[in-house]
């Protein structure tokens, strides 16, 4: 007999005490929740904003040092709202559902059978072979509050039973990315991240996790630092990519603009 997974038991109990909510509209998730992670009213919106295929095109971003970059959604509308609510710390619990959406949308994991349950990777034929998950470190960390990339990394680590490591740090004296334009971001980011000297990444395939991929400057710079520290391969993944929505995915009001 295998030992019970106490983490999972505690998770189910917590989901029963504190019911899970739809990250896209905050509705309580009942038994009719879609894939255990969002409500049936958000089904069309979730589909509309999905980024398929999840691999991000080089035409929209400027990547270097990365094997590839992946995202589950476009950074727009309900997805944007969910991420902002998570990031500002009001609704950090959405991170679990959003990480589960990443597992399903990006890597094709079998969806959770119900709210508070986990997507299953055992069924994955093309199981990702990462040795560890590394979150992009926050520029302005809030004491005691893990950033959204860390929350996503932890959840994906639980789903795939691979360790979360934090070798990256922000080099002091660099500006926050959001204060800069595109060219400034590339320049600034290149020197903004480094790995701690005691980081042991030798020979590792790393999954780098961020919440949003905008220009690609941040994830590329982090990947470069990880490669310098000995990683052999870095793939970046995010909930959403900030790209122009394809025409067929725009709402009618957006098309009129
Ligand atoms: Zn909803």
From TrEMBL:
It comes from the Bacteria. GO terms for molecular function: transferase activity. Keywords: Transferase. Residues 189-251 form the Phosphoribosyltransferase domain. The keyword Transferase applies. Pfam families: Pribosyltran. Signal peptide: none annotated. SUPFAM superfamilies: PRTase-like. Belongs to the ComF/GntX family. This is Phosphoribosyl transferase domain protein.
């Amino acid at each position: 007999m295998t030992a019970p997974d106490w983490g999972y038991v505690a998770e189910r109990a917590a989901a029963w005490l504190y019911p899970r909510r739809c990250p896209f509209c905050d509705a309580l998730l009942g038994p009719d929740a879609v894939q255990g992670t969002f409500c049936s009213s958000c089904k069309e919106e979730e589909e509309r904003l999905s980024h398929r295929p999840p691999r991000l095109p080089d035409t929209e971003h400027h990547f270097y040092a990365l094997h590839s970059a992946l995202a589950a959604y476009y950074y727009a509308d309900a997805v944007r709202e969910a991420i902002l609510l998570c990031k500002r710390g009001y609704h950090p619990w959405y991170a679990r559902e959003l990480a589960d959406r990443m597992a399903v949308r990006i890597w094709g994991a079998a969806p959770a059978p119900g709210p508070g349950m986990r997507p299953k990777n055992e069924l994955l034929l093309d199981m990702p072979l990462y040795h560890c998950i590394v979150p992009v470190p926050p520029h302005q960390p809030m004491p005691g509050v893990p950033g959204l990339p860390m929350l996503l990394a932890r959840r994906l680590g639980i789903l795939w039973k691979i360790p979360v490591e934090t070798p990256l740090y922000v080099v002091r004296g660099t500006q926050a990315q959001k204060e800069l334009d595109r060219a400034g971001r590339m320049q600034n980011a290149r020197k903004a991240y480094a790995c701690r000297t005691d980081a042991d990444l030798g020979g590792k395939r790393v999954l780098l996790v961020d919440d949003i991929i905008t220009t690609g400057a941040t994830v590329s710079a982090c990947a470069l630092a990880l490669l310098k520290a000995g990683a052999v391969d870095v793939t970046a993944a995010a909930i959403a990519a900030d790209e122009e929505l394809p025409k067929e995915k725009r709402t009618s009001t957006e098309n009129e603009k």
